[in-house]
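Annex B. Sample input.
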Amino acid sequence: MSDVLPTPAPPPAVLRWFNAHGLRKKASFAGNLARLLRHRARARLAGRPLVAIALTEHFGDIVACEPVARYVRQRHPQARIVWVTRAPYRELVAHHPSLDGCLAVFCLTEWIWLSRLGLFDTIYDLHMPDRICRYCKIPLRKPPALPVVNGRNYLRLGGLLAAFSQGAGLPALADAPRVHIPPAAAARVARLNLPGRYAVVHGTANDYTKHWPPAKWAALIAAMQQEQRLAVVEVGLTPFVQPAPPGLIDLCGRLSLLETAEVIRRAAVFIGIDSGPAHLANAVGTRGVLLLGAYSYFDRYNPFSGDYAAGRRCVLLQADGPAAKLPVEAVFAAVGRVLND
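Annex B, continued. Sample output.
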């Protein structure tokens, strides 16, 4: 009799999720294949090459890599250029004047399938090699001739833009990102009737090691309200300070990505950790205080390009260790310097 115990079967709920993921991926692939064939037909009729820029997530990465769209348009002025991303981030590229379209895939594996069809004349894949969809587990393979950009070195190659552009076979781009906010999004923000002068705060990221403690956020918000007479607006998916300090304007879960960009654009200052809204602040030109610290393989790093990379219109606070070690007093003082600059 064998001493090896059988592997337990996955719970039924897990199996249902994987089956649902697979079905939705296939349905999305069928729709995007039809869209891709239309893009190719239009390109061929016009005598234009079809070019793909691919970066499916996360939204801060996509905002940081916006200059790739402009660079690729300069390199291929006659091309039909399509950006491939996941559906939640489609609005970030949907209004870009350098693009002819967007394919919103369900997951990274769907992009892998589309990329292998030979329908694109040129592909600029901004993903790091061996990225996987956590459900499909199929690694993304890149040509061996491309520079090696991976999780151990990418933030030593410059910011996100410089690293990802090199990994796609482009030069190390360094332009400031831009975000294209349509009038409808700006109008919806105007109807919120926000105060004339306010700060925006954001404190959550995909990796908890980037976070700053809620108690410190609460102390900072109270100090800004009392000593600097600043209204404070919180953005993001879910509130990170619980319970919310009195007077905090909570817009979490109420805004689209581009509405969030417009709220940040109107702010006197943005205070946040390394996350998507921080890249929006850089893109819209709002003064910022950025809370950075040791992350993954990197003791110190700067993920930005443009002004925030050069230390213009911002203060980048670097902790010795994780960002959580930054004292409230240092952050509050930095807010004062930025406001008085």
